[in-house]
Design a protein that fits this description.
Elements: H1 3-13, H2 18-36, H3 39-43, H4 46-51, E1 55-64, E2 70-81, E3 87-93, H5 99-115, E4 122-127, H6 136-150, E5 159-162, H7 169-183, H8 203-220, E6 230-233, H9 238-249, E7 253-259, E8 262-265, H10 272-283, H11 291-294, E9 299-302, E10 314-316, H12 326-334, E11 339-341, H13 350-358, E12 362-364, H14 366-369, H15 372-386, H16 392-414, H17 423-442
Parallel strand pairs: 3-4, 3-5, 6-7, 6-10, 10-11, 11-12
Antiparallel strand pairs: 1-2, 2-4, 7-8, 8-9
Helix pairs in contact: 1-2, 2-5, 2-17, 5-17, 6-7, 8-9, 8-15, 8-16, 12-13, 15-16, 16-17
Bound molecules: NADPH dihydro-nicotinamide-adenine-dinucleotide phosphate (NDP).
Length: 445
Amino acid sequence: MKAAEVLSDLKRRFPNEPEYHQALEEVLNSIEEVYNRNPQYEEYNLIERLCIPDRIFSFRVSWLDDKGKVRNNMGYRIQHNNAIGPYKGGIRFHSSVNQSILKFLAFEQTFKNSLTTLAMGGAKGGSDFSPRGKSDKEIMRFCQAFISELWRQIGPDTDVPAGDIGVGAREVGFMYGYYKKMAQEFTGTFTGKGLSFGGSLIRPEATGYGNCYFLEAMLATRNMEVKGKKVAISGSGNVALYTAKKIMELGGSVVSLSDSGGSVVAPEGFTQEQFDYIFELKSYGGRMYEVPEQFPELKYFSGERPWKLVKCDIAMPSATQNEIDEEDAEALLRNGCIAVSEGANMPTTPGGIRKFQEAKILYAPGKAANAGGVATSGLEMAQNSQKISWTAEEVDHKLRQIMSNIHETCVEYGKEKDGYINYVKGANVAGFMKVANAMMAQGVL
Ligand code: NDP
């Protein structure tokens, strides 16, 4: 195959899906060589079967708001690939959600899940419903309406959803509750559940903590550590806050956090008191612009992302896709950034990635660095099926081990002749090989 030709054909057949095209392009370019070394893949046209999702469900979700008005949103579930295990991937509730974004996320998820070495296929779902500003009861009614459409398509051995942007423990609880009622069963469908009904300890922390463990492994390849480093983080949701917590535990300083309104920076690092306040503020839906009201020494920049605002050694984008563009990447490099480890999915644009790789800094794509979240979801599924609960220490230990294994795999497949570790290539090739070989063994489906 020629990556450029496959991509141009897929772009023609699936137009107006820029995020999906972007994710395809990154993967196709990195696997082209290994794909062409295995002519049996081409004989079975494996590349198209891997790029095009197995199936897509899309549906209208109608629900009643608190004033009794009927509201309509779109709902989706993309079941991308189940060659190595049941479909698995989060659900995103955000006004920006559309089919292109979910297709890119489901495609990426397939490679990420393969990298974890656990038996999980790739999927993603969501809605253009935004929980922000809605009451708990509105969110509950929406979640129930969403699941009333989706429940037939999911199940513990079929498709296991989880959280993502806008979907945390509250939303998972409402969706799982309604699923359980409709399916009349109590099993491991959904991960990220509350602890009293099958959730796993460390699942809320896992994506952020896992990213820090991956970062530690990357830094170790250059005899460096987190201690004493300044770390810029974007976002202030689940991934960002637990990343920040662990960075501070490891002796690093967190110099920024943000939300979709803007960023708060602390050039010398947030104090524990400031961080605890932000953590609390975000737990009840507060906004970053409120932070300087409590701590006037902290500056808020409306409408700005953190990357040009503050010097850092390390950047950990943890909000959303395409939040570091080429200019941001240049600014980070100019300010001495030596490592980027992605908590969010596809937060760096192709131009930004090029800049990081040309500068030969440590750069880990989300599908490797943030895989700790889904890996711990895999551990939740394992606990559910055995009807047992592991301690926090046990789960954290397994998470560390998985992140270390993913790092080693990336090094094995991504080390270039000059010794530079191309983590993008390493993650894509390793993720691809496992799924491709399983697909070959299972015939044309
Ligand atoms: P949350 O909803 O908990 O937090 C998202 C954060 O990002 C919020 O601070 C939000 O700000 C900000 N944000 C969202 N959209 C935008 C936008 N368009 N522009 C600027 N800021 C934005 O989500 P998570 O922390 O769970 O997810 C963050 C990222 O991590 C996503 O890319 C997700 O796919 C990825 N991820 C999450 C995993 C998990 O386990 N949760 C696992 C692996 C990856 P605001 O509140 O203003 O919207």
